[in-house]
Amino acid sequence: MGRNNTLPNDFTVGYYLSDSKINKLKWNLFVDMCKEKYNINVVPIDMNKDINSINTRPYHVIIDKLTDELGDLDNPSNKQKVDYIQSLIDKFPSIVEVDPLESQKPVLSRDTLTKLLDKLNDVSPELNIKNPKFVLVPEDYNNNDYNQLLKDANIKFPVVCKTIKACGSKESHYMGIVFNEKDIHQFKQPMLIQEFINHNAIIYKVFAIGDFIQVVHRKSIRNMNENENELIKFDSQKPFPTSLLPTDGQELKIEMPSKSTLSVISKDIQKNLDISLFGFDVIVDCETKKLAVVDINYFPTFSGVDDFYTLLIEHVINVYKRKSSV
Known about the structure:
CATH class of the largest domain: Alpha Beta
Pfam family, one: Ins134_P3_kin_N
Strand content: 15-25%
CATH topology of the largest domain: D-amino Acid Aminotransferase, Chain A, domain 1
Cofactor: Mg(2+)
Number of domains: 2
Number of helices: 10
Helix content: 25-40%
Catalytic activity: 1D-myo-inositol 3,4,5,6-tetrakisphosphate + ATP = 1D-myo-inositol 1,3,4,5,6-pentakisphosphate + ADP + H(+)
Keywords: ATP-binding, Kinase, Magnesium, Metal-binding, Nucleotide-binding, Transferase
Function: Kinase that can phosphorylate various inositol polyphosphate such as Ins(3,4,5,6)P4 or Ins(1,3,4)P3.
Distance between the termini: 26 Å
Low-confidence stretches: none
């Protein structure tokens, strides 16, 4: 392990990540490792520096996560950060973005993501993928009755209701499991209504760093039955309420999806979204045993990924070599 001799002597990686992301990733350990083992400088992008005063390319590569900022450009601070990065790229087009800003935008919308994931249903049948049925409700939909909408999409209760916006606001993480038409009215349009798939309270979180993937399993939402009738609201960024958890003593059966199937899914996401640092959530239908991909997250915390720092910097080097040689 060590510095690649084909890299420039002053090889520098600029980054912009939120303070909370830096803390969760223990980013300072990554910065130190890059310097000590690779002699690579990893430095924060100085958003206060006048771009007009920068005469030479300040970074060879940029790593950034701006999904929250892109999701709320009405906030002047967010717009300033996005504009700064874009201006930097415009002035120094030889800077390599690991995942470009344009590629981060589709992750903001459940509309885009759900349609993308729906296409996975058309891949080879032996992969055993069947993603949830869904309906997208536009803001101007006459919502006197959602029953016909669900009937047309062949969706039965219970369902999951979510905002179309996947990040950039607190509301984007609020969702609910709904057992009747009346309670759907508690959610604002535009929204995504998705069938709920019982999956024995296990979710498989797949982390992708380029071609590398690692799978970890976590406890998830308990199985629901159609005889229930009480709306369950929750924030997906916080611990689940007890009403969503499996009962004590319930045996959680691990049915780890095959790595080859998950690799196909990962490559499909990369091809369609042009991102390389992401995670996606997979559940296994407890009746049909088919896989369902229920979420994609750009640049998650990669919790549980072995040797994450080495994998990340090796990926950054590979992206730089590939893109700078084009």
